[in-house]
Design brief:
28% of the residues are buried. A hairpin with a 2-residue loop joins β2 and β3. The chain is 63% helix and 11% strand. The strands form two sheets. The protein has a four-stranded antiparallel sheet, with no helix packed on it. The protein is α+β, with helices and mostly antiparallel strands. The longest helix has 69 residues. The chain folds into two domains: 363 residues, Up-down Bundle (Outer membrane efflux proteins (OEP)), CATH 1.20.1600.10; 83 residues, Single Sheet (Outer membrane efflux proteins (OEP)), CATH 2.20.200.10. Keywords: Coiled coil, Lipoprotein, Membrane, Palmitate, Transmembrane, Transmembrane beta strand. GO terms for molecular function: efflux transmembrane transporter activity. It is a lipid-anchor. Belongs to the outer membrane factor (OMF) (TC 1.B.17) family.
């Protein structure tokens, strides 16, 4: 090929490039904002962060640790996500293969019969391979060779597609980590709820005993004509009410156990636990560190960051479709009508080499739409990333405040329970000496039961707030 021809083809290629690239639609780009506050609402600048602590170190109850460990192996939803990660990993491999040459080998055989009174048939009849030997009729055809095709990735369309797939794979990994944190949090929350229900059931049993003793006293008082039948019926009704609550709590225990069993990935069975020291359990201390650490510790933020990176690359891939595509095809092998001639060199040798420069001219609306859509998805990814950061900050701030307020509430509620527990004995003594009405005894017992229930509820909320704070700062997946 002469220099004149090369310049001519280069000029044509430049014209196609200019023609196809000059009409790309204008888009509005958006840059993500990664800035976060220097500290949380408490103003602390301590960088110590509980998020770096593994969940095995954070949870000290061996029964809870065993449940979480089993769930991380058997939970169906988590295993589904693991397969999605495998799919994303294979997508990276597929994209990587697209910008490498496709090379293959082939073997073929066939037969061709042309009509005698055709241009091809008449020429074959007069063609002699050797003196006195005409071309065989019908004509066999044997082929042995290799071929290669390669799209030259001038605009990095294929490489960017591969990088985008890699970012999506990393996003799926972070999505799995985020699911692990939620799974750990949900199991621990249900476990603490189960301990709370056990303690509430124990309180009910104690209260039934107290009420039954009070009922026996009222019956004696009635026999002594100190009270009427109404008082006896009121106390009996209160005993029946409390006993009916037992079955409601027992049902809640069954449902909570089965919720844990579902998360663990097994059929219903009793949950091993120790509820005796529930009220004495001390919530875990969570060091929240600095807000900037959320970007590295929170899996949902990291997932949003990788999704944003993939969206940016997808815009570049969509933009590259406006430019010409350059492909090279090549082949090398042997071709003959007789197997004995197949490997004769150079007579049976065949080869080809071609280059194609293809530019989109007609179907540009589809390319424009894909380009604009890719940019819109990139803007969506920016907002999602910023929302993830804001949501993480607010979650930490809420949990820090909740831990503080629950501690104050628990201290006051403990004092209320102590006062009401003492009031039961006082009201019973006053009732025996006819210095208090039976309704005062009933109301005191009822208030004490409700206060003790609320104290257990606050303790459960304290434990859950600690776990939620651990999840909010980015812990639980390591």
């Amino acid at each position: 090929m002469t220099t004149q021809h090369m310049n001519k083809y280069a000029g044509i290629a430049f014209f196609l490039l200019a023609f196809t690239a000059c009409k790309m639609p204008a888009i509005i780009e958006k840059k993500e904002n990664k800035t976060v506050s220097a500290s949380y609402t408490n103003g602390s600048q301590d960088s110590t962060n509980t998020a770096t602590q593994s969940w095995r170190q954070f949870f000290t109850d061996p029964n809870l640790v065993a449940l979480i460990d089993t769930a991380l192996r058997n939970n169906q939803e988590l295993n589904i996500t693991l397969q999605e990660i495998e799919i994303a990993r294979n997508e990276v491999r597929a994209r990587k293969g697209e910008y490498l040459p496709f090379v293959g080998v082939g073997v073929g055989a066939g037969v061709d019969k042309s009509g005698r009174y055709t241009s091809k048939g008449s020429s074959e009849a007069t063609t002699e391979i050797k003196p006195g030997k005409a071309t065989p009729d019908p004509l066999p055809n044997f082929v042995l060779g290799g071929y290669a095709t390669w799209e030259v990735d001038i605009w990095h369309k294929l490489r960017n597609a591969k990088k985008s797939a890699a970012s999506k794979y990393l996003a799926s990994v972070e999505g799995k980590n985020f699911m692990v944190t939620n799974l750990v949090t949900e199991i621990s929350g249900s476990y603490y709820e189960l301990l709370a229900l056990d303690n509430q059931l124990a309180i009910l049993n104690q209260n039934i005993q107290i009420q039954s003793n009070a009922l026996a006293i009222v019956k004696l008082e009635k026999e002594a004509t100190k009270v009427t039948e109404l008082a006896v019926r009121k106390f009996e009704a209160e005993v029946f009410k409390t006993r009916s609550l037992q079955f409601a709590i027992q049902q809640q225990i069954i449902e909570t156990e089965n919720r844990i069993n579902f998360l663990v990935g097994r059929y219903p069975q009793p949950i091993t636990r120790n509820s005796d020291n529930f009220t004495n359990m001390i919530p875990h201390t969570v060091q929240v560190g600095l807000p900037s650490q959320l970007l590295a510790n929170r899996p949902d933020i990291r997932r949003a960051e990788f999704e944003l990176a993939a969206a940016k690359l997808d815009v570049k891939v969509a933009k590259a479709r406006f430019y010409p595509q350059f492909s090279i095809t090549a082949g090398l092998g042997y071709n003959a009508f007789n197997p004995s001639y197949l490997l004769k060199t150079p007579e049976s040798l065949m080869y080809n080499l071609a280059g194609d420069l293809l530019a989109p001219l007609v179907n540009r609306n589809g390319i424009k739409a894909a380009y604009i859509s890719a940019n819109a998805k990139q803007i969506q990814a920016v907002y999602n990333y910023e929302r993830s950061i804001l949501n993480a900050y607010i979650e930490v701030a809420n949990q820090v405040s909740k831990i503080s307020n629950l501690q104050k509430s628990y201290d006051l509620k403990s004092q209320q329970v102590t006062a009401l527990t003492q009031s039961i004995d006082i009201s019973t003594g006053l009732f025996k000496s006819a210095r208090a009405d039976y309704m005062e005894v009933l109301m005191t017992q009822r208030d004490a039961l409700e206060a003790r229930f609320e104290l257990i509820e606050i303790k459960m909320q304290q434990l859950n707030a600690s776990v939620n704070a651990y999840r909010a700062v980015g812990g639980g997946w390591r």
